[in-house]
Every structure is written in structure tokens, then in C-alpha cells.
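[Q] Does anyone have a clean C-alpha cell version of this?
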Amino acid sequence: MSFGGIITAIVTPFDSDGRVNEDAFVALLHHLLENGSDGVVVAGTTGEGSTMTDEEKLRLFELAVAEAADATVIAGTGSNDTGHSIELTQRASDLGVDGMLVVAPYYNKPNRRGIVAHFSAVAQATDRPIIVYNIPSRCVIDIPNDLLAELAQIDNISAVKQARFEQIEPIDGMDLLAGNDDTLAECLDRGGTGGICVASHLVGREMRRMIDEPAQRHEINDQLREVFAAMAVTVNPIPVKTALRMLGHDVGGFRLPMVEASPEEAEEIRVVLDRHGLLSAV
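[A] Here you go.
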């Protein structure tokens, strides 16, 4: 399976007691698919997957598959525990997701042979395609391009979500997906097939135009720069959840150690939303 288009790393709504709000999740899913998203990643970084239980994740995978019709559903099944990733990948496969997003093992800091062994083991646990998630800012380790090329030779590994900012290059045998909103244009220019995005919660239709209208790509990118910057005023997913609430979406709060935006951060987000004309639609 080839991955591409605008795939939104959907936030996980919580209710006032901190439980997963399934109704709000389904409502947000439909909103995204109606506004530029070609699919979603469930329980990724933006979805606060690191503070969700396996059962919570599996329930959202199940809901997304049931509600997404023909849209792509990618399950965040990676962790720094290979055995845990294998189990979650197998269970997500049984639920019918289209693929898995598997992050580079964090904290353990494996060497090259360990990285290859980790992704090989997870890939062997499913017949669904695997997206390698390379995000050195969170995982400490960076998977260099030559090692990505080696991983591309493993059956079922079909794409990379590239969340580094340098040396963004297409890898033979892998779809290239932007892992940062502000590198989407660059990835597309270099032959990438799309991105796994955050700001697409807010400006999904415009981001989709960057794929559909390549001649206008950089003009659109320039128009969205301040939105992308606002989504980085503090650690993800604090800004995007704050923005979604401002736009009337019932996404709730955060699970510790994520905390609310400061008043200054929230005001910076509000100003950008207003300037971009998003608040006027509320």
C-alpha cells in the first residue's frame, strides 16, 4: 500500500474526568475527513498515545476503522519496547487498520543493529504496511538515510514519516511523508507523497491544495507559515488542542505531563487564528 495525501495526526479528546471521549473523537474524525484530510493517524504523538492504555488505543482504532469509510486509518503502535509494539501491532491488524506508525525506539537508544532488529520484528508481526517514524527531537536517535534505505528492504516497511529538518531525501522503496507541517512543501518538492500533519486540524483544505496545486504550493505555504508557527509555540499537542477548543471543538484537556497553554501562549494562538480568518467562522 502506498501512503500519501494529508494524513492528520488526530488529537484524542478527553472528557472532564480525563477519560477518552469517543463521541467527540468520532465527530472530530468526520470533521477532518470533510475538510482536507485523506486519513488519520490514531494514538500518535499528537493523540497523546504515550499516556493512553492499550485498550483505549484499540478502541479508537476500532472506531476509526468503522467511521472512516474509504479514508486511511493508521494506528500508532510503536514504543521503545519491541515486544509491546509487536502485540499492539498484531491487535491493531486484527481490527482492520490500513497501516502502522512505528516510532524509532526512544530512551533505550539502540544501535544500528538494534534498530534494524526492532523494525524487522514489528514488520514480521503483521501483513499491513509499516511507516517508520523518525523524530530525533523526541527519540534522541536519528535514523540516517542510509539506514532508512536498509529498513526499506524489509517486507512490509513502506514509508517514512520524516520529522527531521535536515537531509530530507526520498528513499528508494519508501514513500516520503513530511513529519513537520513546515516541511510539507519541501517534501513534496523532493518527491514526497504527502505528510502526517498537525495544522491540518485547522487548515486541512489549504494544506491539501499544496498537493493538488503544485504551482501554488509555495504561495500557500507562505500564507500558512504563521499557522504552522503557532502550532509550535509550545510542545505538541498543547497548541493544536488549544486552537481546536477556540474553534468550538470538544477536545477537552490533557493528560499529565501535558498541561494547559499559558495565557501568553493561548493569546498568541488566538491572534493567529483570528488573523487567518478562522475565528470568524465560529
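[Q] Thanks! Anything notable?
[A] The mean pLDDT is 97.
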